Amino acid sequence: MTPQPLSRREALKRVIGVSIALSSLNISSYGAVQGIGTDPNLHKKEIPWPRVLTDEEKRTATALGDIIVPADEFGPAASAVGVPDFIDEWVSAPYEAQQKDQKVIRPGLEWINDEAKKRFKKPFAECALADQTAIVDDIVKDGTDAHKKAFSFFKNFRDRVTGGYYSTPEGWKAIGYVGNTPMIEFPGPPPEVLKHLGLE
Description:
- The N and C termini lie far apart (about 70 Å).
- This protein has a domain at about 55-65 and about 80-175.
- Helix content is about 55%, strand content about 0%.
- It is mainly α.
């Protein structure tokens, strides 16, 4: 049987029908918002989904983020350039990769907070820097099963913190990135780059 060409009216009916069906979809997961929603309008800098991190989770994320990227001669700490807010936005997004990270990051923040309370009788964010660092050192160095799971969280969280930090102007400056800078003429690759590539 020869397929019949689709009329413009029928094509529009099908497109509208699919659009209505897609708009009714929901996503059900740990702390996820309902519905996929739309991508943010980057001109307005508005995020169309609600944030999921609790105040305590955000305080923990702030303290841990500042251990990963502290203030130094190269630039400000992670919290000073909005990285905790970026983490909150990231794990709140209703997309598969972000929802997967949420299932690692939120339990991880809870674990490190509970560990601080167990050891030092305080939430992680209220502990002295030396005590916070002691917990992080154990996560990185200890080979026990509990800390192996914590290290999986820490590695994920570290990658999100550094990814957020080094996508800011302060982060670019810290690593010497000078892209998107207009030049009257191109001076060519730096000598150290040519030497590294064996072209000098």
